[in-house]
Amino acid sequence: MSRELTDICEPLRELRSRFQAHVEPHRRALWGYCLRLTGSVWDAEDLVQDTLQRAFAGLANLWQPVNARAWLFRIASHAWIDCCRAEAGAELCALDETALVDDTPPEHRVLAREAVERLVHALTPLQRVVFLLSETLDYRAHEVAALLDTTPGAVKAALHRARGALAAAPAREASPRAALSGPRAHADVVRRYIAAFDARDPDALAALLHERAVTTIVGSAVELGRDTSRRNSLAEWALEPLPQWVKAGVLDGRDVLFVFAGDTRQRAVLHSVIALEIGDGAVLAQHTYYFTPELLELAAEALGVPAGTHGYQYDFTGVVWTG
Prior knowledge:
By secondary structure, this protein is of the alpha+beta class. It folds into 2 domains: about 5-170, PhyR, sigma-like (SL) domain (Butyryl-CoA Dehydrogenase, subunit A, domain 3); about 180-305, Nuclear Transport Factor 2, Chain: A (Roll). It contains 13 helices and 7 strands. The protein has helices at about 5-40, 40-55, 70-85, 105-115, 120, 125-135, 140-150, 150-170, 185-200, 200-210, 225-230, 235-240, 295-305, and strands at about 180, 210-215, 220-225, 245-250, 255-260, 270-280, 280-290. Strands 1-4-5-6-7-2-3 form a 7-stranded mixed beta sheet. A hairpin with a 7-residue loop joins strand 5 and strand 6 (about 270-280). Helix 4 (about 105-115) crosses helix 8. The longest helix is centred in the first third of the chain and has 36 residues, at about 5-40. It starts with a helix and ends in a 20-residue tail after the last helix. Belongs to the sigma-70 factor family. ECF subfamily. Keywords: Sigma factor, Transcription, Transcription regulation.
């Protein structure tokens, strides 16, 4: 990184910290909205992080006051719709005012509320956005229309179709979000990673990383390269006084490592979740979910343990990470 860009990093971190503090009151609602939109813990977290990055990057383009909550939901809605449009075979329907019926039967409203967990399977992405904004967040038709750049009539038509589709959708049995299990893919590398972690051995962990491995503390920092991670996050982790250990498991269909912490194993909390990308016998990337309280709470509840609380951001004041 050039010296000029390095000089910009510190003031940008300070601005991002102020931004995150400003939007923090809306984070939980935003995450819940994204989870219902996507139906996946991982896609929800990705959508939240993408929304926050877009919002922060767009600050310089704002020349008028905005409602922070509405602004975040608008960005998330459009980001999700764009993502679905980009995916091959994603079923998207345009919002229009045809087949609009104003007197939606009351039983459809009741069934719609009971079927909110089924909406991922029953509705198109656009219908999902309209339904969630209208039915679970109590946005009015003209407010949804403003967020989606359409008309109130088109919103009402989409909402009517969504209610009908949910009323007709069969009940679905919810599967567990998280569970402990032995390593599945790349078992040898995962077992060595667990052994090095439980031994609190940063050198052994670093040895498992590819020389160009990318380490991401989701929503907080990115380290490029094995040596950078060894000098920074691994060095800090090795000095943490609280006992930690890790167990392999599955979270929403994805192999992960659950990191537990506590003075005893009987009083442990879920400290963080690590997702590894492995290839050619080495860790190519590791994603640590630490400043993601909603994801940790959901996983901890499924595992039957308390969730550790770390907030949404790290205090970088006075910290200098070396490249």
